[in-house]
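Hi everyone,

Forwarding the result from last night's run.
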Amino acid sequence: MTSVGSVDKNFETAAVEQGCRMLFLPENCSFLGLAFSESLAVAEPLEGPTMQRYRQLAADSGLWLSVGGFQERGPDPEHLYNCHVVINASGRIQASYRKIHLFDNSVPNGPVLMESRFTAAGERLVACDSPAGRLGLSVCYDLRFPELYQRLTYELGAQVLLVPSAFTVATGRAHWEVLLRARAIETQTYVIAAAQAGQHNAKRESYGHSLIIDPWGEVVGRLQDPLATGIAVADVDLGLLQQIRCRMPVAEHRRLGRLAVHRDFEIL
């Protein structure tokens, strides 16, 4: 998607069917404005009218939806939550995850983005079952913290890791695909990364390149035009996932997750 500063226009773009069981939307799919204050102004509780429209869309279409990044009303007037919401085909909220890692950075030759100025960090890992398998939820900048995905996989049983994003162009060119493929390979899961793409407004541009990656690290779904609005389609084969995990039982070989941390040591 190329989301803009209009909830109505973004909603119309998202309401598309291609005969799939589940549709995954990127971070900021409902709104992406010029200023932090605009995001705070449109923030709503999960029971509010914008999320209700997505819930109705899921029920009307019979699709599960991953609403990859929604401006949820936060703990105080100055902060919102960047909330990833999964809605089932009956229109009920199945799970919600508040982004844990906030992007505070000055991008070389790009924008200065200080997410913590207006966003409160989440504190809870979230996974849920779906027609695509057991989903591990994350958002964008979380991608740079592999321990989050390790815990989603080995502690919460994730088979599909979701990384809805609005990556900057500079960081996307350098790191987007290699990080996504690494997360898939090291956890032996599918990775589905719906991405914002193109010029949103005078200040924001996103890298695009939405990807679906299998547990062997192969890209099995992408748009022909990586900056276009569209839908990449792929099958999730949980049989393949099990074959890969059986042939290379990484979960059984893990040791660091079982070792105690000792803080008393000698500096040589």
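The helical segments are 7-14, 36-42, 49-61, 146-154, 169-187, 238-247, 250-253.

Cheers,
N.
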